[in-house]
């Protein structure tokens, strides 16, 4: 389904989103609220692409018998979690009900 979503509200900023949970349950980092949505999504997209490329490189290295270090995996996980948190902060700022071409969703 290719629906065109038109936001009737001036949704241009993000909401906050905590991430990087520590063993005790508290979060180490939080995304900033009130950031520009377009710029935030560009950062999330760039991080996601970096994760994809790095994961592909690690997979190739393992297939060729090279070592993969735990810190590389932790860094990869951090970038993926940061991208997800940024995306969630944008998602949370979108109103529950948006006008979709031809009706409400």
UniProtKB/TrEMBL annotation:
Top-level taxon of the source organism: Bacteria
Protein name, as recorded: DUF3077 domain-containing protein
């Amino acid at each position: 389904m290719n629906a065109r979503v038109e936001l009737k509200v001036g949704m241009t900023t993000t909401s906050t989103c905590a991430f990087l949970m520590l063993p005790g349950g508290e979060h180490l980092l939080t995304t900033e609220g009130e950031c520009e949505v377009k710029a935030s999504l560009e950062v999330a997209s760039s991080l996601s692409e970096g994760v994809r490329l790095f994961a592909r490189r690690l997979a190739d290295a393992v297939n060729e018998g090279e070592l993969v270090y735990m810190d590389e995996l932790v860094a990869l996980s951090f970038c993926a979690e940061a991208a997800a948190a940024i995306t969630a902060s944008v998602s949370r700022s979108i109103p529950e009900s948006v006008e979709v071409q031809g009706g409400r969703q």
